[in-house]
Amino acid sequence: MKEEAVADFVGRFARNPEGGVQGEPQSCRAVMSKKRLVVAGDGDERITVPLSRVVDVVVGNVPPNLRDLFDATVTVGYKTDEGTVETVLIEGDDSTMSKFQTVLFKCLLNGTKALVKHPAQLGGRVTDSPVRKAKISIESKQVRFKTSGDNFTIDITNVIDFERTERAPDGESRPTLVVKHADDGQVATSLVSPASSRKLNLLGRYFRIEYSELLNEVGQIDLSESEKRVLVTIYATGGDIDFKNVLDGSAAQATNVVNSLREKGLIEEEPTGLSLTSHGQVVVSQRLEDVNI
What we know:
Elements: E1 7-15, E2 26-32, E3 36-41, E4 46-50, E5 54-59, E6 73-79, E7 85-91, H1 94-109, E8 112-122, E9 125-126, E10 132-139, E11 142-147, E12 152-155, E13 159-167, E14 173-183, E15 186-194, H2 197-219, H3 225-237, H4 243-246, H5 251-263, E16 267-270, E17 273-276, H6 278-287
Helix pairs in contact: 2-6, 3-5, 3-6
């Protein structure tokens, strides 16, 4: 059966970029099916990567020795026949590489079986959600989980933290992702344990694409002590509070602080009160230790 191309574009590439390259990066044509990625240079050089051997995908992190030569990039790490890991860095225009990374993760992760518990926690409270079997599918900016019961989706633009643990949702010792994400103004924690460590690493990389950008944006936001206190109070109470009490009884100061946080994209209005945006949730989780309550 003939393989159908799901991506086909012209760009540039470098083989094993961490080790340096001789001369300028080469022009290439990159073609990918659901089974393999082929990168063909102008000359005889040709790199064929079976997708079943891909162990890592890094978006936009160009090695120091190539930062002046490349722009929008995707780096693919894969195991060779000898068992070593090699990499190929591929560059194209922003639009092309954005589409390519989504298609690549779809090919790598769609259909992956996993054990999930969603939500394992909601607003810091442990839930009684059952452990379920799921199949993963990747959409633009989303990870969908299809189960025998209710399906659910994690929007990667709402991911505020994630880490790897060795305790699976069923209590067994198995690599698992603990994903914290904003959900209707609350922080939900979901446990996802893919069938293999390789798939777990790739899923983590997909989450990291948006999360890294979010961390970078949050790191550039300056906050006063009053703004930090209000953010933490909204997080702790769900926003149904009297801010004057938080800020020593000053109504004018409370209004100014709330307006400033809204302008910075850290809080938003909900029917039940104020809630934290994804950026606000990350600020609280990253800077909680800085706040004296």
